[in-house]
Every structure is written in C-alpha cells, then in structure tokens.
Amino acid sequence: MLVVAIALVAADGRVLLAQRPRGSRHGGLWEFPGGKVESGERPEAALVREVREELGIEIDPRDLAPVGFASEAEAKRHLLLLLYRADRWVGEPTALVADRLAWVAVEAMPALAMPPADRPLVEALARPLDRP
Ligand SMILES: Nc1nc2c([nH]c(=O)n2[C@H]2C[C@H](O)[C@@H](COP(=O)(O)OP(=O)(O)OP(=O)(O)O)O2)c(=O)[nH]1
C-alpha cells in the first residue's frame, strides 16, 4: 500500500497534523495529512488531491519536496509511506475529514500519539533543524 503525506510548514516552523477520526484505523492518532495513492495515479497528484479533499487547500506539485519515507510491515499488508513537505499553499487548512487539526512544533511531536511509521519521519523532518 502506497501512502503519501504532507508536512505543511508554517512561517514559524510549526507543522500541521491531523487527528484521525475516532473509530477508524489508528483512530485518535495524530498524522500528517494525506492518503492512499490510487492505481495509475502519480504520487504528487495523489497528494494534491488528498489535501484538497481533507484540508480544502491547493498546493502546486512543484512546491512539494521529498522529506523521506517509512517502510512498515502491517498485519495483512506492507505500508510504504512517502512524506513530502511544502512551505506554500493557497487557502486556510480546514478539518474536512480529521477530528481536528493542530500546528505542532517538530520538537513536540515525539510526545504525541502517532502511528508507528511516523516516528522515523518525524526524525527526518527534524534533521535539517539540527544543522548549525
Ligand atoms: N495520511 C497518513 N496516513 C498514515 C500516516 N501514518 C500511517 O501509518 N498512515 C496510514 C494510516 C492508513 O492506513 C493509511 C492512510 O490511508 P487513508 O487515510 O486513506 O486510509 P483509510 O482511513 O482509508 O484507512 P484504511 O483503509 O487503511 O483502514 O496510512 C500519516 O502520517 N498520514
């Protein structure tokens, strides 16, 4: 299963997380907005579609930069999760699907309940901030 997700980075460095609806798989956990890539769909096009559906914002695919990926064995399938980042978008993100949204400092993410695959991605996101 190929999933694409986005780290929307605000001017103050905080990143948008979405809380998965209670009752769904991983319900209540905080994640990067995104979703499954459909058959024959370009990953970047899937991400542009997902943020439109879930957040009501528009992103130019040229503003998507790769951060890293996670490869995670699940019970009945294998999850390949690609994380991109974007510093530019049009519109104000709205919780159209998630229970709620929050702008979170990357340093605060390890304390949040997130799906296991997201842990290495949070580290990848934090890495550029470690540089002098
Ligand atoms: N969008 C997103 N999905 C994530 C993250 N981490 C993680 O393990 N996932 C998993 C949860 C879901 O199984 C899948 C995302 O697909 P989706 O959001 O379209 O899935 P869905 O609710 O339909 O869930 P399901 O069919 O797997 O039950 O990737 C993340 O940071 N962002």
Give me some keywords for this one:
single chain, 132 residues, alpha+beta, Nucleoside Triphosphate Pyrophosphohydrolase, four-stranded mixed sheet, three-stranded antiparallel sheet, 7 strands, 30% strand, globular, binds 8-OXO-2'-deoxyguanosine-5'-triphosphate
Describe the structure.
InterPro entries: MutT-like (IPR047127), Nudix_hydrolase (IPR020476), NUDIX_hydrolase-like_dom_sf (IPR015797), NUDIX_hydrolase_CS (IPR020084), NUDIX_hydrolase_dom (IPR000086). The protein contains two helices and seven strands. By secondary structure, the chain is of the alpha+beta class. It has one domain: Nucleoside Triphosphate Pyrophosphohydrolase (Alpha-Beta Complex), CATH 3.90.79. The protein has a four-stranded mixed beta sheet, with helices on both faces. Bound molecules: 8-OXO-2'-deoxyguanosine-5'-triphosphate. The site of 8-OXO-2'-deoxyguanosine-5'-triphosphate has 15 residues, from β1, β4 and β6.
Average pLDDT score: 95
Number of domains: 1
User: Could you state the CATH homologous superfamily?
Assistant: Nucleoside Triphosphate Pyrophosphohydrolase
Helix/strand-derived category reads alpha+beta
Sketch the topology as an H/E string, one letter per element: EEEEHEEEH
What low-confidence regions span 5 or more consecutive residues with pLDDT below 50? none
What gap, in angstroms, lies between the N and C termini?
37 Å
The third-level CATH topology is Nucleoside Triphosphate Pyrophosphohydrolase
CATH structural architecture:
Alpha-Beta Complex
